[in-house]
Amino acid sequence: MINLSNKQIILGVSGSIAAYKSAELLRRLKEAGANVRVVLTTGGAEFVTALTFQALSGNPVHSELLDTKAEAAMGHIELARWADCVIVAPASANFIARLAQGETGDLLSTLCLATAAPVAIAPAMNQQMWANAATQKNIRLLDENGVLQFGPGEGNQACGDIGPGRMLEAEQIAQLTADIFHTGSLAGRTLLITAGPTQEAIDPVRFLSNRSSGKMGYAIAQAAAEAGAIVTLVSGPTALNTPPHVDRINVRSAQQMHDAVMQHADKCDIFISTAAVADYRPVHTADQKIKKTQNTITLELQKNPDILTDVAHLENAPFTVGFAAETENLEQHAREKLQRKKLNMIAANLVGEGLAFENDENALLVLTANTKQQLTLTSKFALGRELIEVIARHYQAAS
Ligand code: C5P
């Protein structure tokens, strides 16, 4: 089954009779779980109306580059950043020529230049136009520039010709789109990931906890599964759905998380500790609900085990990645933690009002003993994928 859950896709539709197939493609992408925004060129709008795409995507259709109303809602740079990938289907000969030249006269080609996300084209044109030396030269240029190419297929064409130039079927394009995210960089590797907060019981109805949503850890777990890893996620209480192909173990307290992790740690290749584990727990948990009979009460706390340190100090320790949430002196505190906890890598981020914890976006400073890499502010899903690729590279270099 094609899986595109949590993916943000721009579907570009340029002027070709195959544009009618884009409506079906949009449906397939949505069914696979993607959030899709359609960018329609003037040529594309000659074949299928914006209304069709708007109704199917549930999002407004974008077509003007310099429309103040559209720019105010979601400007072209914002749209370019929003995308996890851009799929231009159909890509007409005219659009391919413009993209190869790096032109910016319309919204879709501008977006393709402005995005850091992968761009793929699904060419659709008459077989003679496809075979033409100018088109083939443009295709080579795009290939050199890293633009992915889906198809074209061969067969009967709308113009009556037979040959190469048919746009691939919606199902094939949806599958190729999903394949973009399946990097295989951790194929067969076993990953153990902690995520979310822990809850430290005070009595049967109250607990100590923190603001962690678990989103970062879940995004990393999803990215790891997509990279081909076998993933176990040990999760504190969150409101999130388990990512596809991820094995989830639910825990509440730090001690339960510690026990679950230790059961699996010696069997994993990589351990990623994103959980915001409570540092302390009440010494006593009351059996019954504490009554408000006294004006002040004292809660005595004791330190929880440090799960990350315990894993990193195992005799056969996996490649161990910690997180550092800091309010100041990010690099200094993170580097100190990297050394003290004997980690292979640490991913550090600033926390505080409106930052990281409850947000859908984050930025990370990734440190190893002798490297430093900044992953800039983006969605936690995109960041999870970037981090997994960084981890895969360092893990391979270390093993
Ligand atoms: O020392 P500090 O809590 O700042 O370190 C943060 C890192 O340690 C995170 O990766 C967190 O998941 C992990 N940690 C842990 N067990 C604890 C406390 C923190 O695994 N009890």
Task: Outline the fold blueprint.
Blueprint: E1 8-13, H1 19-31, E2 35-40, H2 42-47, H3 50-57, H4 68-74, H5 76-82, E3 85-91, H6 93-100, H7 107-114, E4 119-123, H8 127-131, H9 133-144, E5 148-149, E6 153-156, E7 162-166, H10 170-181, E8 190-195, E9 200-203, E10 206-208, H11 215-226, E11 230-235, E12 246-250, H12 254-265, E13 270-273, E14 280-282, E15 301-303, H13 307-312, E16 319-326, H14 330-340, E17 345-350, E18 361-367, E19 372-379, H15 380-398
Parallel strand pairs: 1-2, 1-3, 3-4, 4-5, 8-11, 8-13, 11-12, 13-16, 16-17
Antiparallel strand pairs: 6-7, 9-10, 14-15, 17-18, 18-19
Helix pairs in contact: 1-3, 1-10, 5-7, 6-9, 11-15
Overview of this protein structure:
The protein folds into two domains: 8-180, Flavin prenyltransferase-like (Rossmann fold, 3-Layer(aba) Sandwich), CATH 3.40.50; 190-398, Rossmann fold. By secondary structure, the protein is of the alpha/beta class. The chain has an eight-stranded mixed sheet, sandwiched between helices. It has a five-stranded parallel sheet with strand order 2-1-3-4-5, with helices on both faces. It has a two-stranded antiparallel ribbon with strand order 6-7. Helix 1 runs parallel beside helix 3 (50-57), helix 1 (19-31) crosses helix 10 and helix 5 (76-82) crosses helix 7 (107-114). A hairpin with a 4-residue loop joins strand 18 (361-367) and strand 19 (372-379). 37% of the residues lie in helices and 25% in strands. Cytidine-5'-monophosphate binds next to helix 13 and strand 16.
